[in-house]
Amino acid sequence: MVVQPILLRGQWQKAQTLQTFRAADPARGELLPELFPVSSWSDCETALVAANEAFQGLQQMPSARIAEFLERYAAEIEADRKELVRLAHAETALPAATRLARVELPRTTGQLRAAAECAREGSWRLPTIDTAAGLRSGFQPLGPVCVFGPNNFPFAFGSISGGDFAAALAAGNPVIAKANGCHPATTQRLAEAADRACRTTGMPPGTVQLLYRTRHVDGQRLVADPRLGATAYTGSRAAGLRLKAAADAAGRPIYLELSSINPVILLPGALRERPESIADEFSTSCLLGTGQFCTNPGMVLLLDSPQSATFIDLVCQRFRAAPVEPLLSKAVRTSLQANVQALQRAGARVLVGGVPAGGAGFRFANTLCRVEGQTFLDESPALQTETFGNASLLVVASDLEQLLSILQRLEGNLTGSVYSDTAGADDAEYEQIAPILRQRVGRLLNDKMPTGVAVSPAMNHGGPYPATGHPGFTAVGVPAAMRRFAMLACYDNVRQHRLPDWLQDPNPTGQTWRCIDGHWTRDDIIPPETD
Hints:
The protein is of the alpha/beta class. The protein is about 40% helix and about 20% strand. The protein folds into 2 domains: about 5-125 and about 140-260 and about 475-480, Aldehyde Dehydrogenase, Chain A, domain 1 (3-Layer(aba) Sandwich); about 265-445, 3-Layer(aba) Sandwich (Aldehyde Dehydrogenase, Chain A, domain 2), CATH 3.40.309. The chain is built from 15 helices and 24 strands. Strand 4 (about 25) and strand 5 (about 30) form a beta hairpin. The longest helix has 26 residues, at about 95-120. It is globular. The termini are far apart.
């Protein structure tokens, strides 16, 4: 059987293969026919050398050319949308029309075009100029970036198409893409589109490269290599922390998205006012995409009351009635079962589901667990185990004081939501809850489930550990996401013609915002006249 090639130095070539693997169809539980390589360190070495050569070329290239590449790539994806959706559906079982074609693929091309606009306009660099001191500074590319893609978003977070990829390229860095083993054929098809766009726009060979899989030891060696500018990783906490340890030991930047349970707090007034609609919103959000979202509401916090009891009954009914959709892989199902069992060992009881579901493919019953507030306080680390998939934990606190104590025990999360009475009956409780929750989440929501992540400059898709490896950065939303892959460069008394064009006296685009002597402006600097 033919082993699929990898993309190195702008060429599709045979991998230095240690072994091979095949993806699976999650809906049927059967292996797909294509054979993909597990690369040796030799392929990583080739990718690093080529990426650094490409980086030198990109540094000499105007940002407008990089923007052209991103826009051309978006057009290539749209031209190939039918085959990309077919492959992604076969490898993930995510709904082809309603999820992949109508939502995720347009989001992906939108991200690429937004990143292109930021690259062309230039304000993302935050150019800062002190004319009296002769100092000029701003952000410039860091170096080759390795992107490890997750299993749950083959397009929008993919290693060779997603937000990390777009941000790294827009900042002027080449990308070594490490595909996720759940959807290698989809990633290969995207890489072919990226390769065509590179050739059309004259990008240096090695600007975009693709490896499907490496040994763990080689992945750790890769993120620690001094020739790599940074790494972006989205995936499991255990694997991410191993990569982080290797990168940290070598002093290499690594940006991680690891684990989040995204607590949702339902206050009594809200449950008195609209129990049915909140039950609908929560059930839809939790089971959307079989719960395989990093912003899935994995924990609901309630106060012990008749209204909470009614809500729990309503949600149990909805979880029992909802269809059981496939999970992304056998490994996801195994992990979900193990993590539900971990919650049970820590004192939670299963209200609905809790076991693998029947039928073809990788399915697990829609699952709700419940635990009392004091038990959560006694076992808070174990009861914050992420159940990635169609499962959530209901935590019932005896009173507001106990609820506040529970919030103090929460780890860092991507999101936190509070539902309250629209007439203000819950305002006193909200004022006590919000400051505690605010410090533990990257994005605070009111009266809204957290599943959607808008592609907006104002979005923060990040948060305190373990949601991410660093609370100061977002993985969604340019220009902020671009600055993860840039260094702050200062020029002291450097002659005009030796400065980057965006720090010279004329504004190179006429549109770039620059802070000149403490004032943000798009104007040129007018040198003082000399006698």
